[in-house]
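Allow me, if you will, to draw on your knowledge of protein folds for a short while. A protein sequence and the structure tokens that stand for its backbone fold form the material at issue. I would ask you to consider whether the tokens describe a fold that such a sequence might reasonably adopt. Thank you for your consideration; the sequence and its tokens are set out here:
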Amino acid sequence: MASRSLDLDERVANFINDHLDLPAELVMGEPSMHGSSVAYVMRPLQKYKVYFDGRKKRTFSFDIQAKCPFWLDAINILNAINELMENAKSFQLKSNNGSFQFTRAEMTHSPSFAANVTDNLDVVTGNSAGDNVFAIYIASFEVTAIITK
């Protein structure tokens, strides 16, 4: 029997994008697009339990970065994401291919300052203009899921 690809990170990102009015779509990787952006990186943690039937209860860390022109907007975005995930129910966050069952999410690191960056590209004209400084803040939450065979 072929194993299924774990779609947990994709489903979490879609859940967040569908339920929150973010300034930009939540994407995997670094917040490298011009203007405001929200990005995540998922990492498996060493917290797991193997069941007799072959399923595993596994915990994953999601590090979310919000890049906004106003620092308070970045903090509010990250707090909204953490609140949404902590209140998510298993019937709301489901795998598209049956590879996992969502159990719970918990905030592990509240929003904290990461950097200020200059983003002076005018996204309409493509020209450099001004010195637009954006704040990048980071927060983390853990997702626990049962990974199916």
Residues 8-147 form a domain with the STM4215-like fold (CATH 3.30.2000.30). The mean pLDDT is 89. Residues 71-86 form the longest helix (16 residues).
